[in-house]
Amino acid sequence: MDTTNRDQIRLSDRILSALQLSLEQDDLKISETLTKALELSMTRNTGGGEFIERRDYPPEIEEAMSKLSALKDKS
Predict the structure, then answer these.
(1) Nearest-angstrom CA–CA distance, 15 and 13
(2) Domain chopping of the chain, boundaries
(3) DSSP string, 10-42
(4) Residue 58: what pLDDT?
(5) Which of 46, 58, 45 is nearest to 19 (CA)?
């Protein structure tokens, strides 16, 4: 089994992919859980308990957050 591509994909990329799928399926509960996991995966090992994220999110994540907000409004 070739793991070259697998080793180059970040955990946050895989979680984002799952989040996008859950949003397409209008699954609010799973989307919220995946959003928490995405946030954790992006901020782990980055400054301890008082760490505040100062980077802008990539457009794909911004779009997913907008879709999540719209799904919450719809529910």
Answers:
(1) 5
(2) 4-74
(3) -HHHHHHHHHHHHHHTT-HHHHHHHHHHHHHHH
(4) 85
(5) 58
Q: What is the pTM of this model?
A: 0.74
**Cα 53 to chain center, whole Å?**
14
The set of residues, in sequence order, having a beta carbon less than 8 Å from that of 75 and lying 6+ positions away, is 28
Pairwise CA distance, residues 50 & 37, whole Å: 18
Q: What tens digit of pLDDT does each residue of 29-73 get?
A: 999 999 999 999 887 766 555 555 556 678 999 999 999 999 999
The encoded tokens of residue 6 equal 């697998």
Cα separation, 6 vs 8, in Å, equals: 5
Q: What is the pLDDT of residue 65?
A: 93
Q: How many CA atoms lie within 13 A of 15 on its CB side?
A: 17
